[in-house]
Design a protein that fits this description.
alpha/beta; Rossmann fold; 11 helices; 9 strands; about 40% helix
Length: about 290
């Protein structure tokens, strides 16, 4: 069972969905150097996929995508540290830490190799994951990812962290929704806009601020040439957060990368156009050796 993120509550699923160690009813945890990372599994056989959300999200955001993939794939969803049902330590947030969280989940779930799919900041984390844990990475799919933020972007993220610490999540939720979702989504799917805002408001401000500072310090340029697996770089045609130049930098830096544009989507293509996203992901899976 996969938690529905649209409830904007961090509730555990009703029952365990794999034979991995269960620490509480319905909750599976991986230990990442003492930090407990929540994960869920859908599907019992087929190629393994690890689906990872971005800043302020949670595992349940992948619900629709996972439901479509579960009949033919083993799908693992996780909450990054500081998010959802995972631990929220006071420090230790970075792209490398997120990558190591992913590796811990793979090993706890018994995944030998996977295609790691990461949205937004997790798009950088899957690059780091492939570079640092090549034994686990069969392929990667950054969705709206980037190599590093430009100076203005770093300043914005650091300011966002400060605003959240001073005023709470309400200080940034509307602006984040406005930027993350494309005009098509804002015009045609107000329920998705409202659900994303509710999810953002449910975040722990201290943990969110720590995650925002990790985003500000993102720089996976040294990891790019060490990515030896195939990569599918996905971004929305209406992307505003990490537009085409950011995607081109990823494609140029990763040795075996292709680019796929999802129409009618912004920064969160997997949420805004799930059917098109799943089709692109399945095509990539079929192409892998």
């Amino acid at each position: 069972m996969i938690t529905d993120w649209r409830s904007a509550r961090n509730e555990a699923p009703a029952a365990p969905v794999s034979s991995s160690k269960v620490l509480a009813e319905g909750a599976m945890k991986a230990d990442a150097s003492g930090v407990q990372i929540h994960y869920e599994v859908a599907g019992e056989s087929g190629p393994a996929l690890l689906l990872v959300h971005g800043l302020g999200g949670n595992a349940g955001q992948w619900r629709d995508v996972a439901a479509s993939l579960a009949p033919s794939c083993r799908v693992v969803l996780m909450d990054l540290r500081g998010h959802g049902q995972s631990d929220k330590p006071a420090s230790g947030y970075s792209i490398r830490a997120f990558s190591d969280d992913m590796a811990a989940v793979c090993r706890a779930a018994g995944v030998e190799r996977c295609v790691a799919v990461g949205a937004s900041v997790a798009g950088a984390a899957v690059v780091q994951f492939a570079a640092d844990h090549p034994d686990l990475a069969r392929g990667i799919v950054p969705v709206g990812g980037s190599v590093a933020l430009p100076p203005a972007g770093r300043d914005r993220m650091n300011q966002r962290a400060a605003d959240v610490e001073a005023k709470g999540m309400a200080a940034v939720a509307d602006a984040v929704c406005a930027a993350a979702l494309g005009p098509t989504t804002h015009a045609s799917n107000p329920s998705l806009v409202g659900s994303l805002k509710a999810l953002l408001l449910s975040n722990d401000p201290r943990a969110y601020a720590a995650g925002a500072r990790a985003v500000a310090s993102t720089d996976v340029s040294a990891a790019l040439p060490r990515v030896n697996c195939p990569a599918l770089i996905v971004f929305g045609a209406e992307e505003k957060v990490a537009p085409l130049p950011a995607q081109a930098a990823l494609r140029k830096g990763i040795p075996h990368a292709t680019l796929r544009v999802i129409p009618g989507a912004g920064h969160l293509a997997f949420l805004e156009q799930p059917a098109l996203f799943v089709a692109a992901l399945l095509e990539f899976l079929v192409s892998l050796p």
